[in-house]
């Protein structure tokens, strides 16, 4: 598994959705939702089983399943990590790091996590129309995982409105951030570049047993794809 640090959603020209989102906006980031509800994988964990680190790799969705969710047949895994990211240098407001980037070291620090698996999936090339991140984080207990979920909800709520990130050339990217959509065990939020005509990124986070599942889905036709990703992963845990 490859290790290292990288900024998510930021391409060489500093945009974060896709070239299809708007003329003149380069997006390395970001997706068409599959009808129906998440179905349990026959190879999923036994019902009620505690999740261990050896289970984490099996929880991430295969590329073909991600392709069904976002409407692409050309996805490939471009990054695989077993450690967190540090995108804090790309943030204007460090208090909103959790709402702007996925699987962040500073966000998860001191929360009782024990292991992480993180993937970036997209089409080949610089102007890829879809960008996906899926991460599963193991915690010492169900309580630690639930506490992290609850704190994430509060943090995301505090970042509604607008926020600024910086691309690899340190140019600012302004985002419009939606209200949080919240359920008992899942939260989601849309962020859209202020220059984009359409599209954006959906961020979703869910808790199941002693695992937190986090996903980003970015692209021209985004609405609930990140939620679909976390729902499917959770269905294989519960």
TrEMBL record:
InterPro entries: PknH-like_Extracell (IPR026954), PknH-like_Extracell_sf (IPR038232). The keyword Kinase applies. GO terms for molecular function: protein serine/threonine kinase activity. The keyword Transferase applies. Keywords: Kinase, Serine/threonine-protein kinase, Transferase. Residues 51-235 form the PknH-like extracellular domain. This is Serine/threonine protein kinase. It comes from Mycolicibacterium goodii.
């Amino acid at each position: 598994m490859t290790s290292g640090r990288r900024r998510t959603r930021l391409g060489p020209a500093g945009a974060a959705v896709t070239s299809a989102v708007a003329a003149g906006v380069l997006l390395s980031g970001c997706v068409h939702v599959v009808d129906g509800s998440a179905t349990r994988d026959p190879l999923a964990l036994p019902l009620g089983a505690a999740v261990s680190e050896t289970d984490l790799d099996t929880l991430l969705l295969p590329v073909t399943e991600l392709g069904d969710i976002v409407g692409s047949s050309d996805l490939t895994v471009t990054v695989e990590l077993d450690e967190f990211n540090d995108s804090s240098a790309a943030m204007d407001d460090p208090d909103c790091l959790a709402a702007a980037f996925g699987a962040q070291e500073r966000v998860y620090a001191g929360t009782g996590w024990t292991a992480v698996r993180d993937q970036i999936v997209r089409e080949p090339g610089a102007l890829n129309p879809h960008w996906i991140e899926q991460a599963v984080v193991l915690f010492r207990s169900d309580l630690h995982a639930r506490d992290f979920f609850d704190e994430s909800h509060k943090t995301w709520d505090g970042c509604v409105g607008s926020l600024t990130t910086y691309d690899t050339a340190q140019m600012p990217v302004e985002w419009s951030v939606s209200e949080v959509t919240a359920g008992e065990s899942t939260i989601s939020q849309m962020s859209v570049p202020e220059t984009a005509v359409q599209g954006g990124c959906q961020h979703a986070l869910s808790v199941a047993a002693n695992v937190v599942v986090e996903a980003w889905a970015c692209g021209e036709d985004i609405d609930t794809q990140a939620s679909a990703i976390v729902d499917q992963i959770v269905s294989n845990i519960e």
